[in-house]
Design a protein that fits this description.
alpha/beta, 2 domains, five-stranded parallel beta sheet, five-stranded mixed beta sheet, elongated
Length: 251
Amino acid sequence: MRRECGGVVYIVGTGPGDPELITLRALKAIQEADVVVYDRLIPEEVLGYAKPGAELIYAGKKPGHHALTQEEINQLLAEKACQGKKVARLHGGDPYVFGRGEEECMYLRGRGIPCIVVPGITSVIAGPAYAGIPVTSRGIASSFAAATGREAPGKPQRAVHYARIMRSVDTLVVVMGVGNLENIVKEMLEEGIDPGLPVAVVEKATTPRQRVVTGTLGDIVDKARKAGIQPPAVIVFGRTVELRDRLWRLA
């Protein structure tokens, strides 16, 4: 049922972790919000920009534990907007890149509630960049793709075929894939991808706790395991990983 509400919801991307990567548009939305609903992976420093008296609500998710379900988040956003409030819903990275920003916006607009999307810098490009790895490079990589390493449960069939993607592009960036790294690598090797393909895993990208492990398709699983790499992390497959030795000090 549609209903007119006096408030508005901003679906805001807050970037990949470094608080200095937040956009001016996102910052303005946070500063003006009456209610801030935020995810687990946002830069915590950005909450300090909320105005005095703003209501801060944690809605983070991690594997096996959700502070709120997605349906509860949708309902919360609608409820606050229909109280005439300005709401900033904060997502890590970009809300439309492996986030659920579009689901929230469709839910709100289906109920007559204004929804404004504020894009953010995604870890798909920022993570590799902070590790000294460009996703494209003239003469080495003219194309790249991004894929999730964790598909939504309940899908009738698997949609992501990593080897097929790798054959179609020069660089593949996988997010939310650390827990599935062994299976991703196994699939690629079984389908004929070169074991010598350069690979990097960037843990906690763009933050002071960032760590990078590099190797090849043939040994990256062992190297990541020995290093104790944990999520969140991005995985980069492709020859641009080899540029890290020359570029990482500039990241």
